[in-house]
Structures are given as structure tokens and as C-alpha cells.
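WARN retry 2 of 3 for item q-0093 after timeout on previous attempt; input resubmitted unchanged.
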Amino acid sequence: MAKIERIDTAHLLFEYERGFRYAGGRCTARMTSLAFVHTADGRCGVGAAYSHPGMVELTIKGQLEPILIGMDPSDPERLWELMYRLTRWYGRKGAAISSIGAVDTALWDLKGQELGKPLHALFGAASSCPAYASALLWDAPENLAAEAKAHVAAGFTRMKTRLGRSPAEDERVVQAIGPACDLLVDGSMRYTVASAKRIAAMLEAHDVFWFEEPFEPEELDRYCELRAQVDVPLAAGENEFGSQGFGELMHRRAVDIVQPDASRCGGVTELRRIVAAAERNGLRAATHTWSDAVAILANAHVIGPAANGVTVEIDRTGNPFVDELLEQPLEIENGKLILPSTPGLGANVRPDILEQFRLDPFAIPPGLYSDMAFGAGSLQPAPPYPHDEA
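OK item q-0093 returned
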């Protein structure tokens, strides 16, 4: 295979006119980062990182690119180990491993192109992957019910909402949306063990598919305690990184479903390791994605063929990096994402979208970017959850 010639990056920013409400406040904008690995014979692979854009830029352009130039890209796993050793001193979790993941996914894209096969064909056999609509943020129950019907009309049979407002409002939301679909619930890290146990009982009564992140990711003792007392499956992992982090989550038996993300946990290489480890531990895997269509496809190529793969997340909040980024938009049929049959990742990025939304990674406008906040006054979280435990 031709050697690596250069790595380009593109950081993208989209600002909502109105945004959406959730536990963190009102989301005003969305961002993502892409890496393009070019080879000397003119081919290009693409991958995504969902992290602080400036840190991604420094990691990829400042350290990884100068070392990778001139190397053979045909063994992504070998280069993953190299990149990990290079960044271990300041990495292991967070922006560094997410940056590795963007380059790693691009290397897998190149490998699929070289072999003339889509990535999922390298990992097993699948033509589609179950997918769910991720939206249904904080709004009136009747508005969420109408939104759920729109997602069903768009081809989804499974979708996720966010709870964490109050016990009564949580139940009203589940009752309003539930009949329309297979419902997943995100707890927005708002609960104590006692209040989560009560909410879990309500979710079980409504046959909810999973209960995601009732606690902050560091609170593994709480996850273990709750899991021993409830029947609804617990899910977590979007805030975890690498095999080590997910290994602890699995070793502690803290959840039933792990939620890695190629754009955060370390790319396709690490995603495959995590999904395989989950299978060995009798756990299921359902990938998180809250950034762009490149990340969605990377996740789907792994989850689709996996024996323990459950579903992939597809942002439906009007994010152009999901809806407009690719020349061939994501296709949903009967609750499944159709996997590309073209060699590699199958993610041909539109140059006009890159130019329209390009961001200087060191000059980020103030705002609440869902998972990241920049500038004074951007943090306006909701009041504490009324646990009613006195």
C-alpha cells in the first residue's frame, strides 16, 4: 500500500437558531472534528473525533502527523499501538485517545478501500445495522409524542428520550412517547440510587428498553448497587475511553449494555476490542454517537456484524453534520441503518459542508455545545432533580 503522505483536519461548528433544552441548559451549537489521512497514490480515508477541537488539532497535527508520514497504513492496529504509546503520557483518556480514534478510523477506511471491501465485510456479514432516533429532549409530553410519530414516519422503530425533570414529569413523558415505539431512556446523570430505583420501577412497568446514565460516569458503586436491585437493563459508556476504562465498567458488572463510540473511545480498532470484550463478559454493546455521520458509520460497521451488537445512535436534532455531511445521506429502513456497500467506510464527505461550517479550533465562540461549554455564562444547568427522599 502507498505510504501516508499527510493528515488534514477539519473542525466544524453549527449554531442553532433556537437549540434545545436538556439537563445542562439550552444547547446553542454543535461541533465535531474530522481527520483525513492521504496516501501517496491519491487515496483518502476519513475518521471523526468528538472532543475539544483545539486539543484534537494539537494532537493530530502537532504530534501524530509528523511521525505517521511515510508509514505504511495497511495495519491500523499496529499504528494504533504506536499512537497510543506516543500520547500515553498525557492521554489514555479524553482528547488524546479520541484524536487517535479519528486517525485510526481513517486508516481502516483506507484498508477497506485497498481490499475493495466495505468495513463490515471485514468484520463479519451484515447489510444493515439496527439504529435508533436520538432526540426527544426536554419539552411538553404532547410535543414529544408528536415528535415520536415523526421519527416513526422517518423509518425508526426505536428512539431515545431524556428524563430527569421530576418524578411526575418523567412518567408523563414515558407514557406519552411509549406507545409509538421501542423506547430507550437517558437519565441525564440526575438521580440518586433511591430515586433511580423508583424511576426504574416505572420504566419496567412501561417496558422501557434501557435506562441510560442515571449517574455520573465516575459513580460505579451506584451503578453496581442499582443493577442488583432492578430489572430494566442499565446502559453507560459514552463518557468512558479505551479498553481500560470499559474493562473496569465490565469487571465491576456495573451495566448490562456498554456504549462505546469510535469518535471518543479510540476509533474502530478500540471499538472492536471493547465490543469483543463485552461479548466475552456476556454483555451487549450499543454505540453512542452525538457528533457526525462519519462516526455513525464507523460504529455501524462494527455493531452490525457483532453477535452482541444491539443498535447505533443517530442524532435527530437537526444536526447538519449528521443530515448533510455526506454525499450519500444515511438511509434508514424499518428501524435499520443500511450499511454502505462501497469499499472502506463509505463516507464521502461534501467539501461544501466543510467550508460552510469550518471552525478555527483555537477561536471557539462562546456557547453550550451539548457536551462542551465555552465562554462565561454558557453553563446554565437545570435545578437539582427533586428526589423526594426525605
